[in-house]
Structures are given as C-alpha cells and as structure tokens.
Amino acid sequence: METGAQPLILNEFNAVGSSRFLDGENTDTRLGRIEGNGGNWIELVVIEDHADVRGLELRWAEESTETPAQPVWDDSRPLMHQGVIRFLDHEFWSDLRQGTIITITESGMLVDDQGSTVVDGSDLQIDPGAGDWWVNVWSFDTDLLEVITNVPGDFEGNFSVGNDNWEISLFDSVGDLLIWGPIGEAYDGFGGGVGSDEVGKLELDPSADVTIFDYNDGTSSSFGAPNIWSAGTITQDFSLLREWALNGNGNGGGTAPLSIAVINGEVQVSWERLPGLEYELQQSISITAPQWERVSFYPMIMDDAVNHSETVATEPGQLTGFFQVLVSGPQQ
Fold first, then answer.
1. 3-state secondary structure of 318
2. What is the pLDDT of residue 106?
C-alpha cells in the first residue's frame, strides 16, 4: 500500500540471527561470511533527487513470545514488538542525492571476515566520481536519528530486524501519512518466508514503481551495495537513478570532452585535467543501454591544467565499447 510520494524505498534487510550465518555457505558482498551477517540493519535507496526526508519515520513491528512494553506506534497490536526510526532535523537528511544507498545499523562497528573495518559509526559522504554511493547511519547517532522501541531490555537507539513476521513501513509523522508499506513476509505479495539465515530484499531495479510483489527472501546478501539474486547471477542496475552524476547535473559533476585517436598504432583517449577535479575513465559495451564500468581513476591535481592521454587498445581492432570521462569535485 502506497499513498504518498516516495523519496526513498526499502532495498534490503538482514534477518540472520545473531548466532547464525547466511545459509549454504553464502557470503555478503561487503561483509563476507560473519556471524549474524552484521546484526540488525536496514538498507534504503534514495529515488528522488534532492530529497528532504526530515520528519519521516520508519515504523517496524515483529511477533514475539516476550511480553513487550506499551505499544510504540500501533495500539491495535499491543503484543507486537514495535519501534520507530525517525529522521531528525539534520542537514544530511535535507538534501539526499538520487541513487544513494543508505544503511542503518544498530552496531557502531562492523568488521568483515578478513578483519577490515566496514562500519565505524556514521559515515555520510558519497563520492560518485570514485564510485562510492553508500552512506551508513548508526542508530545511536542522536544527531541524525531518534530510535525508540518497546522490546524488553532494549534502549533508545536499539531496533530489531528478524524473521518472525517482521514488517516495516515509512510514514510522514506530520498528519500520520503512510508513504509505503507495510513490507514483510506476513503480507500478500511478498515472495517467501524469511528464515533466520536469510535476508529480505528487493529483486528489481530500484524505482518509484516497486511494490511488495518485487520483494523476496534470499541468501545472497549485499550490505551497502546493489542487490543480487538468482544465485548471484542478477544485480540491480542503478544507472537511471545516477544519471545526474553522468550528465553534469550534480554539484561539480559531469563528463569531460574526450577525444579518441590512433597514435603510433595504439588507440588513445585524451582529455584535459583541470585543477581541483577528479576524473574517472569509464567504458560501456553498449551505448543504447549503457552500464559504465571504471577503467581508471585520477585524483585531484592542484597545479596547472594538464593534457592527459591514456592507451585503451594496443591496436585499433582491439577497441570495443564506448568511453566517457566522469568529472567530480568543485568546479573551478
């Protein structure tokens, strides 16, 4: 059920139990194979550019054998565990860029199966020019969120994600307007029953057109990254949501004029690197339905502009696909 404009949508949620692992020896694309698969986390995708979500709130509920405290938001279901995650009046929430992936984690520190730190509190910076579209918000960050729950033994900042008919909805707290939801395994259309060794996820490219019928359970997990399914053979496509970064509609974003020439028998691409900007050479096999992939990346220079050339094929017959140079950083 959807009744309001959707600035962001649910993309994935982790239902793996705290002492369990993803089923079938599966690994998360970012976390690897770790106990609990990162604990309680929710993943959202921004689908409206320059979205202002201040005052919106995620409302979740789950069945439980424990007797909860007083209902948090739904008095008609007093025996359900319930909670609210409210986006506060903070600059970050006032201007979200389309195509951004937002994870909300209960844990302030997440380490992958190789011992590398993945999450250390809140990290609110994206860098489209470097291919970084992910931000993380820690649920105990009281500058960003108000998080309340009626789960016995939990405190402000705790929230729950599980596999006992867990559900989530997005509301506008002004006027109590439902924006989307509820989404969860107990509702008609959800693709399957979520186990304690699984995640729930959107199995479609993110857009305003998704419905509960596009969500499913699964063991392919991708924390802070595009969803994968069908045993990892299908990956979400964010290219339409992120066109603003490729077409020069972002803050300092765009594409640089590019020339291609054959020099000494080699195919070279060339462009001018200006100071204070970052450049990424990208390639796509198709131009009608481009899926740009990074070829190389060049950080900012702070001196004079330079003419840059790069070999993309050692002979003309080896050249396949199309090229562009993505620019990011403050315009000079």
1. helix
2. 98
- The alpha carbon torsion through 227, 53, 212, 118 (nearest 10 deg) reads 30
Closest CA to 86 of 55, 107, 62, 61: 55
CATH number at residue 296: 2.60.40
Q: Does residue 34 sit in the same domain as residue 159?
A: yes
- 303 by Cβ neighbours in 10 Å (0-12 / 13-18 / 19+) ranks as exposed
pLDDT in tens, 163-183: 999 999 999 978 789 999 999
| Residues 149, 117 share a domain | yes
Residue 280 main-chain phi, psi, to 5 deg: -130, 120
Tokens (6 digits) for 174: 């002004």
Average pLDDT over residues 259-267: 81
pTM, entire model: 0.76
Distance, CA of 69 to CA of 60 (rounded, Å)? 15
157 and 90, same structural domain?
A: yes
- Cβ count near 249 (within 10 Å): 12
